[in-house]
Write a structure and sequence with these properties.
The structure holds 2 protein chains of 2 kinds. By secondary structure, chain A is an alpha/beta fold. Chain A folds into 2 domains: 218 residues, no CATH class; 33 residues, no CATH class. In chain A, strands 2-3-1-4-5-6 form a 6-stranded mixed beta sheet. In chain A, helix 2 packs parallel to helix 3. In chain B, helix 7 links the parallel strand 15 and strand 16. In chain B, the strands form 7 sheets. In chain B, strands 7, 8, 21, 22, 23 and 24 form a 6-stranded antiparallel beta sheet that branches. Chain B has a 4-stranded mixed beta sheet with strand order 3-6-25-9. Chain B has a 4-stranded parallel beta sheet with strand order 11-10-15-16, with helices on one face. Chain B is α+β, with helices and mostly antiparallel strands. Classes of the chains: A alpha/beta, B alpha+beta. Chains A and B meet through helix 1 of A and helix 1, strand 4, helix 6, strand 11 and strand 13 of B.
């Protein structure tokens, strides 16, 4: 059985160019108690993915799907970079799965998928400069439970600063970014990062995993004033701060 | 080992030590990320952990600690005075929603709480030590000031940390809640940088036997007759303390139904830092000093001159010796300097500040003395913690620019132990 240090170093090996962007949150929970079920994702078609070279991939899929797709793309030569920002449950050595509070977002399947797939990733010998496939949870901002007292609010967002800058990508000769997601609406928090990349000349493409079509070029735009206004109103009504996943104004500005 | 470094035009009271070797750095990074909840080790293209410790002589640390304690004493005395003088609230730029609540709190005696944490941001300038601000409301940096510093010290012979604010803070909380206490730690949803602080502090409390609850909104607390409760599967659990790591000005923007006002009102449950910390968190704090009986001698000597936006001295086109700050802002992102923005942006900022002067303050700029490092010249900021008025350690950052903002890097401030060859 591997400990959390070994698991972390398999996902973030010191010789990989992209390891420093791996978010350590879930790896710090790898010594918690949790069950590890078998994967429920069995259908893959990665024929659309270009050979590793000048593209990065952003997988924005729910739950364990991101991890499982990341492993499939690793077999093609991409380095999976988990960017999960959510706590799976409150950290406490005393808590067992039975005594933990309910959570607004089900992050445990991602935690267990990372744990389960570590052995497989270890067997894939990726080049130090293998291009990255960034892994996000498409459900990160969505509360599956009402925010009632006693429910652990583990909703999260991704920030522009979770990703390498466009300048860094360009310096590594990256010219395109493929977003693997269901549907056509890019999540508001991810949109900001993509806009920055697009401004720097990186071609954006979108791919739906359930469709047979190849990735399609897309142009993303800043949200309109009315859309931002509506977002802010909805944020207020649902007791969420705009920065939770909003449009515009997502700037690192944590406390003290 | 010397702790003096020569810069372009002055002798500095600190210098950088040896850079951690790659294996040492990876060990420090892993321990922080995996054991100490330090999850923001990479921001954009910047690794937030700086590999070189900043070394200071013991007497320099004593000077800093003394100045921080004097500042804290003045601030806490001023705070007790301001809270019973509602006529000053508006001058601080405090939301009108808060005036009656703080007024009510003052009638019930806003006594100094059991764990009052402040962090004073010191900079060494061409004119000596100055502070840019106090983080009075929700000061952060415990993990970096405590565990990061310890880990780096372990790899840096003949040094020691200048404190352990996490342990001092935990001691203070333990004195209030006792060994089997119950504590909720509150931070904003979605803000991982804040949640990593509450997770770290919760772990420190758990290690002492305290039951903790991480909550991400005031609506998740239940209040009954001034007593706060956490809600758990087993029912309502009375809390001995609430650790508020949710910025006061953010709370004010929540609907009343969220129950945020309870955090500002006097009650049976300790709230730390207390809600009235917003009074001195305001960057407009210096604008009311002349109205106070509390002497502010230390503050006056260390904080650059401040004035209201209506003051004309900063407004001329050629004037570049002032910075414009929002009254409530927690990072350098809301500090604006004339030469750092376009003329158009500066004019827009100026118009906004003059339209809403109560939300802004103007402060004399100081010139931070840069220090040579392996990355070239960097600008250190030493955030000295005081806990219940006593210096407890320092959260130190370095920036590639004079303003400390989210792109700054954390560095370990270490006291260089004197040896026979050199007394510094």
């Amino acid at each position: 059985m591997m400990d959390k240090d070994e698991i972390y170093r398999i996902w973030a090996p010191s010789d990989s160019l992209w390891s420093r962007w791996v978010k350590p949150v879930l790896f710090s929970f790898m010594d918690s108690r949790f069950d590890v079920p078998r994967s429920s994702v069995t259908q893959f078609n990665i024929d659309w993915a270009p050979r590793p070279g000048q593209a990065v991939i952003v997988v924005d899929l729910p739950g364990e799907d991101g991890v499982v797709w990341g492993l499939q793309l690793a077999r093609l030569g991409y380095r999976p970079i988990p960017l999960y920002n959510a706590l799976p449950f409150p950290p406490s050595e005393k808590m067992s799965p039975a005594t933990r509070p309910e959570c607004m977002v089900d992050v445990v399947p991602i935690l267990t998928a990372l744990y389960r797939e570590t052995a497989a990733l270890k067997e894939i010998h990726l080049a130090a400069d293998a291009p990255p496939v960034f892994l996000l949870d498409a459900d990160r901002r969505i509360a599956r439970k009402d925010p009632e007292p006693g429910v652990f609010d583990n909703r999260s967002v991704c920030f522009t600063t979770d990703f390498p800058s466009a300048e860094f990508l360009s310096s590594r000769h990256i010219t395109e970014a493929i977003v693997l997601q269901r549907g056509s609406n890019v999540a508001g928090d991810l949109l900001l990062a993509l806009i920055e990349w697009q401004k720097a000349g990186i071609q954006l493409l979108r791919k739906d995993p359930v469709e047979a079509d190849p990735p399609k070029p897309v142009v993303v735009e800043p949200p309109s004033f009315l859309r931002r206004l509506w977002y802010r109103i909805s944020v207020t009504l649902t007791l969420r701060r705009g920065e939770l996943g909003g449009f515009g104004g997502i700037v690192k500005s944590a406390s003290g | 080992m010397t702790t003096l470094a020569q810069t372009a035009n002055c002798v500095l009271p600190f210098t950088f030590g040896r850079s951690l070797a790659e294996s040492e750095f990876l060990e420090v990074q892993s321990r922080l990320a995996l054991d100490c909840f330090k999850w923001d080790i990479q921001i954009g293209d910047t690794s937030t952990l700086f590999r070189q410790p900043l070394l200071i002589h013991p007497t320099i640390w004593q000077q800093l600690a003394k100045m921080a304690e004097d500042l804290a004493a003045e601030l806490m005395a001023a705070e007790q005075e301001i809270v019973i003088r509602p006529e000053l609230y508006a001058m601080l730029g405090l939301s009108p929603h808060l005036h009656p609540i703080l007024s009510e709190a003052s009638r019930n005696s806003a006594a100094a709480p059991d764990a009052r944490v402040l962090r004073f941001d010191f900079h060494y300038t061409t004119g000596g030590w100055r502070i840019s601000e106090v983080n009075s409301d929700v000061p952060g940096g415990y993990t970096e000031a405590s565990r990061f510093t310890q880990l780096v010290s372990g790899f840096t012979p003949h040094t020691r940390p200048c404190g352990d604010p996490a342990r001092t803070w935990t001691d203070a909380i333990m004195r209030h809640v006792g060994k089997h206490g119950r504590v909720a730690l509150l931070s904003a949803p979605g803000f991982l940088e804040d949640q990593q602080v509450t997770a770290f502090l919760a772990a420190e409390l758990q290690a002492r036997g305290v039951e903790t609850f991480l909550v991400h909104g005031p609506s998740q607390l239940n209040w009954q007759a001034g007593q706060a409760h956490a809600v758990h599967k087993s029912g309502f659990i009375p809390l001995d303390a609430i650790v508020r790591f949710y910025q006061g000005e953010w709370l004010l923007k929540l609907p009343n139904a969220s129950g945020w006002k309870q955090l500002f009102a006097p009650g049976k449950t300790l709230v730390t830092n207390p809600g009235y910390s917003l009074l001195t968190e305001s960057k407009r704090f210096p604008l009311i000093w002349d109205y106070l009986e509390t002497g502010m001698a230390c503050w006056r000597s260390l904080l650059p001159e401040s004035c209201a936006p209506q003051d004309t001295r900063w407004q001329s086109v050629s004037e570049k010796s002032w910075v414009l700050k929002e009254a409530f802002s927690n990072t350098g992102d809301s500090v604006h300097m004339r030469e750092a923005v376009s003329t158009r942006s500066w004019n827009a900022l100026k118009r906004t500040a003059l339209k809403y002067p109560e939300r802004w303050v103007v402060q004399r700029k100081f010139d931070v003395s840069p220090v040579w490092s392996e990355l070239g010249w960097v600008y250190p900021c030493i955030g000295v913690f005081t806990i219940n008025g006593e210096a407890a350690g320092a959260y130190t950052r370095v920036g590639l620019q004079p303003v400390i903002d989210y792109k700054s890097m954390d560095t370990a401030l270490l006291i260089a132990e004197e040896d026979e060859d050199n007394d510094g």
